[in-house]
Amino acid sequence: MSDVWLAWLVAWPVVMALPVALFGRWPNLREAISLATGVALLVGVATFIGPVAAGARPSFSVFSILPGLDLAFALEPFGLIFALIAAALWPLTTLYAAGYMRGNDEPHQTRFFVCFALAISAAIGMAFSANLLTLFVFYEMMTLTTYPLVTHHQDVESRDSGRVYIGILMVTSIGLFLPAIVITWLIAGNVDFTPGGVFADTGLGGLAAMGLYGAFIYGVGKAAVMPIHRWLPAAMVAPTPVSALLHAVAVVKAGAFTVLKITVYIFGIDFLQVTGASEPFVWLASFTLLAASIVAIYCDNLKKRLAYSTIGQLSYIVLGAAMASRLGAAAGGLHIVAHAFGKITLFFCAGAIYTAVHRKYVSQLNGLGRAMPLTFAAFTVAALSLIGLPPLAGAWSKWYLMSGALDVDMQIVLGVLAVSSLLNIVYLLDIPARAFFLPADDQAPRGFSEAPAACVIPLMITATGCVVLFFYARPILDFIAGSFGSTA
Amino acid sequence: MTQFLTETLPGLFNYWIVIGLMMIGFYTVIAHDNLVKKLIGLSVFQSAVFILYISMGSIHGSTAPIIIDGNPVYAHPLPQVLILTAIVVGVSTTALGLALIVRINEAYGSIEEDDVLAADLATSEGEEAREEARSEQAEAEEAHAADDADDGTEPTERRPG
Amino acid sequence: MITAFFNQMPVLVVVVPLLAAPLCVLAHRAFAAWLLYVLASWSAFGMAFLLFVQAKIAGQVSYAVGDWAPPFGIELVIDTYSALVLLLVTGVAALTGIYARKSIASEITIEREYLVFALMLLCLAGLIGITVTGDAFNLFVFLEISSLSSYALIAMGPKRRALLSSFQYLIMGTVGGTFLLIGIGLIFMMTGTLNMADLAERLPGVYDTRTVQAGLAFVVVGLSLKAALMPAHIWLPNAYTYAPSTVSAFIAATATKVAVYALFRFVFTIFGVGYAFGSLPLGTLLLTLAAISMIAGSLASIFQTDVKRLLAWSSVAQMGYIVAGFALASTAGVSAGLVHLLNHGIIKGALFMAVGAMIWRVRASSINDLAGLGRAMPLTSAAFVVGGLSLIGVPATAGFISKWALLSALFEAGRYGVMAVLLVASLLSIIYVGRVIEALYFRPLPDDVSHHQHGEAPLGMQVATWALIAINIAIGVHATPELEATGRAAALLVGGGT
After folding, report:
1. What is the rounded distance in angstroms from the CA atom of residue A280 to the CA atom of residue A284?
2. Minimal C-alpha gap between B136 and chain A (Å)
3. By residue range, what is the domain housing residue B52?
4. Does residue B67 sit within a domain?
5. Is B160's CB within 8 Å of A104's CB?
6. CB contact under 8 A, C478 and A63
7. Is the pLDDT at C109 greater than 50, yes or no?
């Protein structure tokens, strides 16, 4: 495939949003188009796997935004992995959304699918971006296109949550991320993602580097490092397919992806190791992941609990980036994949439960396992994957994170990870345990009452994905690590 | 000091007049409540500047810049021409200002700035109070999510509004 | 013939709208006056474009009015700096022409419509004159032409409060103009010339005199009044709020911008960077005022109930951004200030146009009246959203380019404090833009059907609004040409003035 296809792939969902909008009156046709677009996107992105694995680095510059700064795309393994996840989970979510939205008679379905397509385009754009400016453009595009999704119901609650959502994301990105990019550009004269970083010979000092790294970590509000995590639970006001794809995969992973990209390609692992600029953020991320897990235990609302779980899991990735170890960073990359499959399954399950029996609190789920065996089986698999038990995908990312921490002599991180796994067990396994082992209440449905097939099939597929990924974790890690220059 | 008092001070008397006029005009603009008086002050202020221009073009013992026989000293004609333009600007300003005052008088029945401002303030305060009431009412009427909506609220959480 | 036209273009660009104005009055019919306005403004825009190209190729276009050789006659000089501002002014004027017809018809009685167009042409002629002239006194005259016509335009607003707003503007504007006149007089006194290039040559010889220092002070204060820089901004919110919507859009996008143009034309070209920013603390003074403007303007904007007033206060803040750029007196800073001068003209023009279209529909201008318009007027509301995002500085809009340029320039100059203020002000803009957007999309349409009789805004209003939005986005995604042009202008101003 020629390099110009990078740009076409980014534009593809935007282009196809038009027929989706036009055919809004015929829901079947509209969803068929969405689904076909998603599959075509996945195929398009997948064609790059071969060349990139063979060492090709396709790049394409669209035009210059500012003198010397182009809107440019460049593909490297890590970006490709992120694009693949987004592109693979989009058609699944579309299928799921069709079932969910119809099952719950949601309004404004056309706008929903259009904004979804735009948000995916932003995710692909971020994955392919060749420099910080391009990444920032698509980062903001994602913030803005997901706002109508978060505030989908247009009532007081969604408006207030929307305020928190857009407020935090915009304030951090314009208040910190943008100036950090400008400063990087002025110091290094270059904001291209460069293997080894751009600060190598600039004489940027330790404290200044630390401040700049902090501006990036907190500027990328989508990575939800405490105390700027509030937007993520707020976004749970959205319909569950949105929470599933965007607030478990695309948006939050875009944040984690950005942090990793900046760590590896702007600062450079070696630079961070020498200056120690990222060290404080190891502890901030550790705090976040423990605190979020503890909060999650006390959340009765299922979606809210999953949201806090996501905050914790994101900090694994930030932790992997901040400990300035190649292996750790690659493990963070792997965790993006593993957590994406796990968390989307959990959200799919939450939505399926809501669609089938209209329950959203953990305390209401007692005994539902017999009525919804498939959903709760999938939930268990995904939960175990997030906890990190083999043979599930999450086991490997945690394993490599720990090895990465040992590489740079951060034994305490091992303890943090161990404790957080225990907390994961408490708040995640609690749910299937209630469903399968506790007696059902009086209103609970007797007999088999799963959600529509359009909801159940996607969550079965993603749960299977969690198992399959266990066996392909090493190739993915090597694929990512190849671009990080790791030899692990 | 003596030199200053005997030569500099009287020697620059035209500039002292200019400054004096300027201050009188400016003070009138700021201090007076009556819109017509304000406008008069503005005119005095502008006239002061006209005199500044004229006096800088004049030369001691010079004559008007009209060619006559002999070899007289002429005053600099350029500032005078410039000020002709500035006077036109000043007259138009005064005319427009007076026209506005006439219309203000028609609309408010007064040309005292305080009265007009008070009338405006009353209107805008009324408007603001009305708008605030409307905002509050609109907020009260806004749709709330259904209690069993698929959102992230806890049973204990109070809904906003 | 063609050559003759090209040679006369610098003066024609002023003369065409100036002559069209009395023709409007003679035509006395609303439609004829409108047609004249459209023809004159579009031909001015065409000529401005040609002049911009000429200035780019030749570096500078100069024209001796009446064939009197400068410095004795009046010289018109168009370099990249003035050509850019000229493009903005004529471009906005031309689009306002398309926009104006329906909007003015809904706010002003038909018998007086022709006067609006005549006055707008006069105002346009004045603004164009300021940008093309190379003569200090001539600049004052054109400034007063544009000011006088804008006082009259504002007084034509539909509410009676327009009258006092206009009168207050008249008082402050005239004081400002007279200050400028004093300043010009003082430097004329010391140099005996009014030609800008000539002044720049002769002033260094008399730099140390009190007179020249006072001259600079008077010029700066006078033009700051016209540019509505804090604390001389008091006239602006009322004037923009109560003027007819078309006039608000036109004046907001051009008048204060041209005043800033004139201010820095004096400071850089005539007095010289080294003098104004070296011997006198003008840089620090302007930066401080700019920072106060940014914060105070944004804060005031948040608490407005009237959407036009909200935009007006935001303009006060945005003037701070522009002045902050210029006040750095570095090439990057001046370039950034100029970029934002152009971009803000485009952004605010579009925003006022979009709001004007909404006002045209609901016949009221408070935020509450805009409730639910997101559904009733989807295109106009979308235009407002894009404009608002641009104000915040979201990437892929012109506002982002401004912010990028300003932040870089401030960082380069080591003005971290102002940088932080600018960021805070941008974040405040999220709040006030958000308030309007929430009203548009989250509130239901009111039940009374009285103003449901109109649908989307008329085609002309939409075309003009979206043309500005399109330019806005075009600049946002591909700002290189604009930045190159402003860079050239800045190099000319900062490098050539000393």
Report:
1. 6
2. 13
3. 11-59+74-139
4. no
5. no
6. yes
7. yes
> What is the ipTM for the molecules in this complex?
0.90
Would C458 be classed as within a structural domain?
yes
Question: So what's the pLDDT on residue A1?
Answer: 55
In this complex, is the C-beta atom of A233 within 8 Å of any C-beta atom belonging to chain B? yes
Range scoring the smallest mean pLDDT among A258-272, B48-62, B87-101: B48-62
User: Whole-angstrom Cα distance, residue A277 to residue B159?
Assistant: 42
Q: Which domain holds residue C299?
A: 281-498
| Residue pair A93/A458 in contact by the 8 Å Cβ criterion | yes
- How close A158 comes to chain C (CA, Å)? 9
Interface test with B, best of C72, C179, C181, C193 (most B CBs within 10 A): C181
| β-pair type (C60-64, A69-74) | unpaired
Residue A303 has pLDDT above 80, yes or no: yes
Q: How does pLDDT run across A221-261, given as a tens digit for each residue?
A: 998 888 888 888 888 888 888 888 887 888 899 999 999 99
Question: How many structural domains comprise chain B?
Answer: 1
Q: How sure is the predictor about C449, in pLDDT bands with cuts at 50, 70 and 90?
A: low
Establish if B154 belongs to a structural domain: no
Q: Contacts of residue C407 in chain A, CB cutoff 8 Å?
A: 178-179, 182
The CATH code of the domain that includes B35 is 1.10.287.3510
Q: Around Cβ C455, how many Cβ atoms within 10 Å?
A: 9
Integer angstrom CA distances of residue B70 from A215, B64, B65, B67, C462: 81, 14, 13, 9, 70
Token pair 């995640």 in the structure block, residue: A428
**pLDDT above 50: residue B145:** yes
Q: Which amino acid is at A365?
A: L
Residue of chain C nearest A182, judged by CA positions:
C408
Q: Which pLDDT score is estimated for C497?
A: 40
Q: Min CA distance, C184 vs chain B (Å)? A: 10
Indicate the residue type of C254.
Answer: T
User: How far apart are the C-alpha atoms of C200 and C198, rounded to whole Å?
Assistant: 5
Which pLDDT belongs to residue C298? 94
Domain count, chain C: 1
DSSP state of A444: S
Residue of chain B nearest C138, judged by CA positions: B82
Q: What is the pLDDT of residues A428-463, one digit of tens each?
A: 998 999 888 888 877 777 777 788 888 888 889 999
- A113-136: per-residue pLDDT in tens? 889 899 999 999 999 999 999 999
Question: Where exactly are the structural domains of chain A?
Answer: 278-488
Q: Name the residue with tokens 């018809």.
A: C105
Res B48: pLDDT: 93
Residues within 8 A of A (CB atoms), B 88-147 only: 139, 142-145
Q: Is residue C309 part of a domain?
A: yes
Looking at the domain assignment, is residue C240 inside a domain?
no
Q: Considering only CB atoms, which chain C residues are within 8 Å of B49?
A: 178, 181-182, 185
Interchain pair B152, A236: CB under 8 A? yes
**More confident of the two residues B150 and A300:** A300
Q: Within its chain, how far is the Cα of A28 from the centroid?
A: 28
* Distance from C-alpha of C130 to C-alpha of C124, rounded to nearest angstrom: 10
CB contact under 8 Å between A155 and B155, yes or no, is: no
Q: Does residue C343 sit within a domain? A: yes
Mutate to test the interface with B, among C135, C141, C148, C164 (most CBs of B within 10 A): C164
Query: Can you give the pLDDT at residue B160?
Result: 45
